[in-house]
Amino acid sequence: VKSWADAFGGELYSIVTKYSGSLLLQKKYKDVEPTLKIKEVDGLELVKKFSEQMESMLRRKVEAVERLVEAAEDADLNHEYNSSLEFDYYNSLLINEKDENDNYVELGDEFILEPNEHFNNLLVNTTYSDIQLPTNVYNKDPDILNGVYMSEALNPIFVDNFERDPTLTWQYFGSSTGFFRLYPGIKWLPDENGVISFDCRNRGWYIQAATSPKDIVIIVDVSGSMKGLRMTIAKHTIITILDTLGENDFVNIIAYNDYVHFIEPCFKGILVQADRDNREHFKQLVDELQAKGVGTVNKALTESFKILREFRDAGQGGLCNQAIMLITDGAVEDYEAVFEKYNWPDRKVRVFTYLIGREVTFAPNVKWIACNNKGYYTQISTLADVQENVMEYLHVLSRPMVINHDHDIIWTEAYMDSALFASQAQSLLLMTTVAMPVFSKKNETRSHGILLGVVGSDVPLRELLKLAPRYKLGVHGYAFLNTNNGYILSHPDLRPLYKEGKKLKPKPNYNSVDLSEVEWEDQEEILRTAMINGETGYLSMDVKVPVDKGKRVLFLTNDYFFTDITGTPFSLGVVLSRGHGEYILLGNTSVEEGLHDLLQPDLSLANEWIYCITDIDPDHRKLSQLEAVIRFLTGEEPDLECDEELVQEVLFDAVVTAPMEAYWTTLALNMSMETEAGVEMAFLGTRAGLMRSVLYVGSEKISNR
């Protein structure tokens, strides 16, 4: 057996070396060795440089949003409210629609749409924005008409921003009245039931920008009188409140009748981060609540105030706003003592009350609770009222920010932009949104703190990672981004999609995957903690890396370099693997010599690498990377922007590997089919992404097409 194995191995080895030409390639590299430079990569310097470039790119996005905020606030200042305003605007549902007489319908004028590469080939209008309204908002409501008329002033700013920074994607203004102005304008399609459910006021970016972080305890009455419809409305109210919370908020839910019970016993006496997993868990528990017994609200209130006070004193939680949401069908007992003991005179906790049902007997009591604790009172008598009434609490919580005019810039965690256009399934890009609130500057209403809406813009994470190109990170090197909540924005091992039949769908928790789930070797969470705290530093770990879609595992030692991106909640990490990954070859060739070898027929470049920027100027979009590099080198397209270092390396590789073509061709001509059948193809790839290949058999004979 041993001699068979040796013979077999020897035979394989000689066939492979002969047909691949690996010995020739080694010799060619040896010949140019005197002209080569080998440079060691300095990881910390690299990560700091990338981080600075990312910061300046993100700062441009922030400036674009700031210009929009300024324009919107000035437009509002100069706009007099007119309740009988008549005004035709482009409604994104109705544009280009005609009635039976072939005239355009009202609010649906002609709106020219053209496909645009920069917006995933969607049909858009880059000179004008249009307006989307959810189905439950009347499209000629005077509040809407005034708001739309006022926000027309944003159109020139949208266009100007896009001209200044062509890497910008969607820019938009979500109004507190419910309309959504989107640039570039698109045609919006309803879902299969003809309903448009997208309401910008429920989106994460809107809520995060409109309020600061908050600690919330929801108290729900589950006494016997809540049976039936009231319980259904109460459950829907809780779920709607949960949907307004995000990663930066903390929450718990208490149900009370004769006694107080936390609906999740494990969370007794604490607040938990309102991340997606916890919210989903709460929703399931809320669904199982049953109404019975007699309600006594005092104990529940006492318990809530205690939790909030403990968290406040210990410096935990959101450290910003605290509130109690009381959901009940009436309160009779004497609860003044509770507030006196725990909340007056400072009133650090706001109390919001939701009176469920049509009864008005208890309205004064329930209203008194809210008004004496800096809260807000609403009565919810049908399921349809829930959405509008719950959103009110956000405006109350945002008042102090509005009065002080604190324009906080918010960055959301990564999400797929398919959420924005449920109607057009898009190539699923991961985005982050930068958003900022818009306040009313009018003197007469300054003290009311009126929030007009939120301005936002999307930043594709792909654009950010272009600033940390793969070729600078060596073999097995990569860059990744995460947020200050420990969630991954972008990482080569983040697999956000799964296949359902033929369709790719996002996994439910794709945007809350923790760094520790991907870099799992970081058992002590040293890397995670340092990156969450925005530190700059370095760490090395032994890791196992799957390659070939998980068929093989490599054991490597990786060096992690990390730093924060100033002005954002994000951190950047760069990983270099010990050994090959720490060095870079720098070759030297003249353009004339290299160009000739680049033009050989069986040569290609890695198309997903960016040698030249082809996706901004429309004239360059049709070029492949190889065509672009050749035009850049011959000077045919003087305005092409290319990465000179990378192009230089490609030229060098082209020259060194050029003799392979001749070697392969000679072999192919002298092959006798009988003795040497089975060798079909030879190929080589270099570290600069250059590939060459040769077929030893006619293309119809290849066994693996």
Automatic annotation (TrEMBL):
SMART domains: VWA (SM00327)
Localization per Swiss-Prot or TrEMBL: Membrane
Keyword match Signal: yes
Gene3D superfamilies documented for this protein: PAS domain (3.30.450.20), von Willebrand factor, type A domain (3.40.50.410)
GO molecular function ontology, one term from the record: voltage-gated calcium channel activity
Any one of the GO CC terms: voltage-gated calcium channel complex
Domain VWFA: 215-397
Transmembrane regions listed in the UniProt entry: none
Keywords per UniProt: Calcium, Calcium channel, Calcium transport, Disulfide bond, Glycoprotein, Ion channel, Ion transport, Membrane, Metal-binding, Signal, Transmembrane, Transmembrane helix, Transport, Voltage-gated channel
UniProt entry tagged with the keyword Chloroplast: no
Topology term for the membrane: Single-pass type I membrane protein
Cited CDD domains: vWA_VGCC_like
Superkingdom field: Eukaryota
A Pfam cross-reference name: VWA_3
Record-stated family: Belongs to the calcium channel subunit alpha-2/delta family.
Name of the protein: Voltage-dependent calcium channel subunit alpha-2/delta-4
